[in-house]
Design a protein that fits this description.
The chain has helices at 6-13, 17-25, 41-49, 62-74, 81-85, 88-94, 98-113, 141-158, 164-167, 187-202, 225-233, and strands spanning 29-34, 126-131, 175-182, 207-213, 237-240. By secondary structure, the protein is of the alpha/beta class. Strands 1-2-3-4-5 form a five-stranded parallel β-sheet.
Length: 255
């Protein structure tokens, strides 16, 4: 896990060692983990050290990707929301193949579901892992999503059982996959992703919902009402990122 800093460090520093141990021993559910935003820095740096740009990668300029790669190699300092989003062209380039996607998925699941250095308890008993299915020169959006789901299912088969103290709090599943819709997507692509999710759910694959994510300054959530309705009609969960930055009012009728 990354080092604790800022308000989090101040909060945990105010606790006694016994209180910290008590908190660590509690079963926890992580309900807001973004796959590409939770990749351990060591894995990103390793991928960046061997990254070779493809001539068919035309979604962003090579200069933007290279700038992000250099920042990842040097270590990341995030002061404003824009600093975070400017890294994503590089992160997306690094995770544009099924093999790389499998690797980062396992790395993220390791971070959340394996015991940490402080004891035998896992960081979390349950995690909802959300990710935006992307079409790249190496895979379709459906292959992207199937790769994440298959990797999670294979991972869970090898995962050590929960400690007895946490078994009573565990759900039937340890991982729930959520497909994200980026706010900069066209409505056509959003509908394509939702149709893929519905199809995978009908196949019995372990996908629990759909998420609206991305730069909160982009788009208008009111325009996607029919898409959200289709998600709910399919019996899927729905989670929305709206009104996350100051001076940006977003209104939406929740279904």
């Amino acid at each position: 896990m990354s080092e604790i800093a800022g308000p989090g460090l101040q909060a945990i520093s105010s606790l006694t060692p016994a209180q910290v141990q008590f908190i660590r021993s509690l079963p926890k559910a992580e309900l807001h983990a973004h796959l590409n935003g939770s990749i351990p820095l060591s894995i990103l740096q390793d991928l960046a050290s061997t990254y070779v740009p493809s001539a068919s990668e035309t979604t962003v300029s090579n200069e933007v990707v290279q700038d992000g790669l250099e920042k990842l190699k040097a270590g990341v300092i995030l002061n404003e929301i824009g600093d975070f989003f400017r890294l994503f062209p590089a992160i997306y380039a690094l995770t544009s193949t099924p093999d790389a996607l499998e690797r980062v998925t396992r790395g993220v699941l390791d971070t959340f579901l394996l015991p940490n250095e402080h004891g035998s308890e896992p960081e979390c008993s349950y995690i909802e892992l959300r990710t935006t299915p992307r079409e790249t020169p190496h895979m379709t959006r459906e292959i992207y999503l199937r790769t994440v789901i298959a990797t999670a299912e294979e991972y869970l088969q090898k995962l050590p059982p929960l400690p007895e103290s946490l078994v009573h709090a565990s759900a039937k599943r340890r991982v729930g996959i959520i497909a994200s819709l980026d706010r900069k997507m066209s409505q056509e692509i959003m509908n394509e992703v939702v149709d893929i999710v519905i199809r995978l759910k009908q196949e019995g694959l372990d996908i629990v919902g759909v998420d609206l994510c991305g730069d909160p300054r982009a788009g208008d959530a009111r325009e996607w009402k029919d898409i959200f309705k289709k998600v709910r009609m399919a019996g899927l969960g729905l989670t929305l990122h709206i009104s996350e930055v100051p001076d940006l009012l977003t209104r939406i009728i929740l279904l």
